[in-house]
Amino acid sequence: MANLQSNFIGIKSPNPFWLASAPPTDKKYNVERAFEAGWGGVVWKTLGAEGPPVVNVNGPRYGAIWGADRRLLGLNNIELITDRPLEVNLQEIKEVKRKWRDRALIISLMVPCDEESWKDILKRIEGTEADGVELNFGCPHGMAERGMGSAVGQVPEYIEMVTRWVKQYSRMPCIVKLTPNITDVRRPAEAAKRGGADAVSLINTINSITSVDLDSFAPEPTIDGKGTHGGYCGPAVKPIALNMVAEIARSEATRGLPISGIGGVTTWRDAAEFMALGAGNVQVCTAAMTYGFKVVQEMISGLSQYMDEKCMTSTADLVGRAVPNVTDWQYLNLNYVTKAVIDQDACIKCGRCYAACEDTSHQAIDMSADRTFTVKEEECVACNLCIDVCPVESCITMRTLDQGELDKRTGRKVGTYANWTTHPNNPAAKAAE
Amino acid sequence: MSNSQFTPGVASGRLSADDYTRNFSDIAPRLEPHEARVAADRCYFCHDAPCMTACPTSIDIPLFIRQIATGTPEAAAKTIFSQNILGGMCARVCPTEQLCEEACVRETAEGKPVEIGRLQRFATDSLMEKGTHPFTRDKATGKTVAVVGAGPAGLSAAHRLAMKGHDVTIYDARPKAGGLNEYGIASYKAPGGFAAAEVGWLLKIGGIRIENGKSLGNGLTLDGLKKQFDAVVLAIGLAGVNALRAEGESLANVVNAVDFIAELRQEPDKAKLKIGRDVVVIGGGMTAVDAAVQSKLLGAENVTIAYRRGREKMSASTDEQDHATGVGVRILHNVAPVRVTGNGAAHEVEFAYTEDGPQGLKLSSETFRLKADQVMKAIGQTLSGQPEGLKLDGAKIAVTGAGRTSVPGVWAAGDCAAGGEDLTVTAVAEGRDAAEDIHASLMG
Ligand SMILES: Cc1cc2nc3c(=O)[nH]c(=O)nc-3n(C[C@H](O)[C@H](O)[C@H](O)COP(=O)(O)OP(=O)(O)OC[C@H]3O[C@@H](n4cnc5c(N)ncnc54)[C@H](O)[C@@H]3O)c2cc1C
Ligand SMILES: Cc1cc2nc3c(=O)[nH]c(=O)nc-3n(C[C@H](O)[C@H](O)[C@H](O)COP(=O)(O)O)c2cc1C
Ligand code: SF4
Ligand code: SF4
Ligand code: SF4
C-alpha cells in the first residue's frame, strides 16, 4: 500500500482527502463521524463574527442535476455560513482537535471587511489549537450581498488587504479560498500571494440556477414561489475547477504557490487528476453529501492502488506531474492529423455517430443501405464527436497519420511540428516576419 | 466409442467429447470488464445496504461494487476478502437468489437485482489471478491451534487465526483439502480446479500446515489435540449419510449421491464415468439436484428426482429446481420409495404416493414403478466421527456464542455445528467468527 501521508503547508494528515467547509463539517458530531470513516482532515463550516448568527431559509436549500438513473451530477445551494453560535463552534473545534491529533482541522472564516473584525475573530480562535485558517472569499449568495464572501473575492485589492491582516494578527498557516465567479482566476491568486497567503484553495461554488419549475415558473429550489441564484458544485463543476487550478499552477506569478484543489472530487481518480495538475491535496463536499462519509474509503484504496501501480511512494510524486503538459492553444501542433476509424466487428449499428456527424458536424460518416457505417476521410476533421456519442467503448478510434502521408481532406501531406504562432493565416505571425 | 444415451444399463462414454466439454464448463463465466462496469453502475450504494445484511459474511457490497465501478477491482476484492476469505468460491456457489440478491433493492424495484455474485467473482478473480495475497500476518503470538477439517469452515478459521499471528495445523481425513468445495460442489459451478487453486492462494498467508489423511477417531483424539494445542476447532462437516431404510438398498448400483459426486469431481475425464440410462435420485435438497443434473450431463437418458413431500418443502431453491428441469430432469413430488427391485443390481424402484398431513407423512396404498439402472440416495448428510463427550443439539454439535462447544478450549464451526444453514458462506462466517473468539480468549 502506497503511503498517502500528506503534508500541506506544514499541516500533516494521514491522507490528502479533506472535507471542504460546508454542511459535512458543520459540527462536532459530523466531523467525528468523518474522522471515524477515514477522512484526513476537515475545514470547519465557515464561522462568522461574534453576535447573533446568520439565519438560513426554512424551505429547500438545494437544487440538483441528475444523470440517467438519478445519479447526482450537480448540486446547487443557497445555504449561508454557520448558523450556530460562535462560542459553541469554538468549543467543539477544540474538543475535536484534542481528540484527533493526527487529523488536519482548519477553521474557515468570513467576517466583515474591516481590520477590527478580522483581528477580533483571529483572537477568538487562537485557543482552539486548530491547524490553520481558510479565508472564505467565495460564497456567491447571501453573504456577498452583505459585502462578504465573493464580494471580497472578486476584488484582488481586498483579498490582498485581508490576507495581510490575517498574517499580521495570526501565526496560523493561512489558506485563501477563491471564488470562480471572476474572469481570470490568476488575479485573485496573485493578490493572495502578495498578501502573504501560504496557499490558495479553489474553487468555491459557481453562481447558478439549476432548474426552473415549469408549472410554477420559479427557479428551483423554490421558497414560497420565488427562487434565487445559488452556488453550484459536484461532479459537473470539476472541469471548471481543474482549469482554474492548472492556470494558477502554470502561471509565472503564482507558480509554486500551494493549492488545495476543490470542486467535484467524487472518486480517487478525480483527486489524482487535481493533484497531477498541481493541487497538494483535495477538498470534498458534494460527494460526501451524496454518499455519506464512507466514500473516502474508495478514494483511499483507489489512490493507493494507482500510486502502487505507478511506483509512486509519496503523494508529492504525483503533485504537478501534468502541469508541464498544459499549454496555450497557440502552441498546439497544427500538423498533428488524425482520422476516425470505425471497428466494424465492434459496431452495434446504432447510428448515433452518423446522426451526430451528419446533422451537427462535418458530414463525414457514410451510412449504407445495410447499416454499415464508414468514415469519409476526405471530410473527417477528427473532431471526436462520434467517439463521444458511440455507446460502444473503443469502437471508434483515432488513427494518427504518419508524417508525409496525404491528408485526403486538405490534399496536403502531413508536415512536421508547426503551430499558430508561425501559421500563414495568423496576422501576428506575418507582422513578425 | 459406441455407447450412447440409449445404451442399456450403466455405461461410460455416452456422449461426444464436445458434449462433455460443454456440459462441464463454467455455467456462469466471469463478466467482461465492460459488463462488470455496467452491472456495477446499477448499484445505488445504499446506506446500511440490505444486501450486506443478507450476506452471512456481511461483505460490504456497496463499497466493493463502487470500487469496481471506479476501476479498482483489486481494492474491491480486498473489501470482499476481509470479510470472507473464500469470497471467490462463494461468488460461484452461493444461492444468491436466496441471499444478497434477494435483498437487493433493485430486486424489489424491478425484479432484476444488481448481479452481486457475478460482480464478486469479477473482483476476486481479478486479484487472485495476480497470485498475490492481500493480507499479512500479525506478530507471532506463540499460540498454536488445531483445526480438524479443511472445508470452508476450517479454512476460514485457519486463515483468520494465522492472520492474527497464531500457528495453525489443519488435519483432514481426505487426501485433498477443500472439503465439499473439492468433493461436493457441482462441477460446472467451479470448474478448472478452482477449489484447489483457492486453497493454495489462501495458504499464502503463511503459518498454516495441512496434514491430509489424518482423522479424528482414526489416529487423532480430541484429548491428544487439546494437550498439544492451545485451542481446537472442529470443522468436520457432515461425513455420514442417512440410510434409505427400504428393501433392496444393498443391491448393486444403489449409491450415495455424495459419493457419486465426489468421484465425478475427482475424475478429470468425464467420459470415463459410468452412468445409468435410467437414473432415479431420491431426495429434495441441493445434493439431489446436483446429482440429478450431473447424471443428465453425463448422458443418462431419463433422470428423475423423487421427493416425498410437496414442491414448497424442497430445500433446493426454485432457481436450482428450474435449472434441473431446464436440463431435462423430471421432478416428482409426494412419492416415497417402498423398495428397490432387481436381480443382483437395481432394475426398478417401487414408489408409493404420500400425503403430508398434520400427523406426518402417510403412504397411500397406490404404488407405481420407475425403471432405474442406478439409484442415488440424497436424503441428507449426518454428523459422524465426532469425538465423545461433546454435548449435541439435535443431530449436531451444540454451540454457544461464536462456536463454543460444551468442552472448554474446543470450538465448532460449519455444517457440523448447530445453527445456521448448511451453506459454504455460512461455514466461512462461522469459521471466521470462531477464530476471532479464539483469538480473544487466547490473548485476553
Ligand atoms: C453435493 C453438495 C452440493 C452443495 N452445493 C452447495 C452450493 O452450491 N452452495 C452452497 O453454499 N453450499 C453447497 N453445499 C453445502 C456446502 O458444501 C457445505 O455447507 C459446506 O461445505 C460446509 O463446510 P464445512 O467446512 O462445514 O464442511 P465440509 O465442506 O464438509 O468439510 C469438512 C471437512 O472435514 C473433513 N473431516 C470430516 N470428518 C473428519 C474427521 N473425523 N477427521 C478429520 N477430518 C474430517 C472432511 O474430509 C472435509 O474435508 C453443498 C453440499 C453438498 C453435499
Ligand atoms: C450546502 C453547501 C454549503 C456550503 N457552505 C460553505 C461555507 O460555509 N464555506 C465555504 O467556504 N464553502 C462552502 N461551500 C462550498 C464547498 O466548501 C465547496 O467549495 C464546493 O461545494 C465545491 O466542492 P464539491 O464540488 O466537492 O462540493 C458550501 C457548499 C455547499 C454544497
Ligand atoms: S455510434 Fe458506434 S456503435 Fe453506433 S453506429 Fe456508430 S460506430 Fe457503430
Ligand atoms: S458471499 Fe455469497 S451471499 Fe455473500 S455477497 Fe458473496 S455471493 Fe452474496
Ligand atoms: S441493495 Fe442492491 S443497489 Fe443497494 S447496495 Fe446492495 S447491491 Fe447495491
How do you describe this structure in short?
The complex is a heterodimer of chains A (433) and B (444). By secondary structure, chain A is an alpha/beta fold. Helix content of chain A is 29%, strand content 21%.
Describe, in plain words, how this protein is organized in 3D.
The complex is a heterodimer of chains A (433) and B (444). Chain A has helices at 28-37, 86-99, 115-125, 150-153, 156-169, 186-194, 238-250, 268-276, 286-291, 295-309, 352-360, 385-389, 427-432, and strands spanning 6-8, 11-13, 17-19, 41-47, 62-66, 72-77, 104-109, 132-136, 174-177, 199-202, 206-208, 211-213, 218-220, 230-233, 259-262, 279-284, 338-342, 365-367, 373-375, 396-400, 406-407, 412-413. Chain A is α/β, with parallel strands linked by helices. Chain A has two domains: 6-325, Alpha-Beta Barrel (TIM Barrel); 329-432, Alpha-Beta Plaits (2-Layer Sandwich), CATH 3.30.70. In chain A, strands 3-4-7-8-9-10-15-16 form an eight-stranded parallel barrel, surrounded by seven helices. Chain A has a four-stranded antiparallel beta sheet with strand order 5-6-14-11, with no helix packed on it. Chain A has a two-stranded antiparallel sheet with strand order 1-2. Chain A is globular, with a radius of gyration of 25 Å. The N and C termini of chain A lie far apart (56 Å). Chain B folds into three domains: 33-128, Alpha-helical ferredoxin (Fumarate Reductase Iron-sulfur Protein, Chain B, domain 2), CATH 1.10.1060.10; 144-239 and 383-442, FAD/NAD(P)-binding domain (3-Layer(bba) Sandwich); 243-377, FAD/NAD(P)-binding domain, CATH 3.50.50. The radius of gyration of chain B is 23 Å and the shape is globular. At the A-B interface, α10 of A face α4 and α5 of B. The structure holds flavin-adenine dinucleotide (FAD), flavin mononucleotide and iron/sulfur cluster (SF4) (3 copies). Flavin mononucleotide is lined by residues 20-23, 45-46, 75, 77, 79, 81, 108, 136, 138-139, 177, 204-205, 231, 233-234, 237, 262-265, 284-287 of chain A. Residues 93-94, 148-154, 171-174, 179-180, 184-185, 189, 215-217, 235-237, 239, 258, 261, 286-287, 290, 385, 414-416, 422-425, 427 of chain B line the site of flavin-adenine dinucleotide.
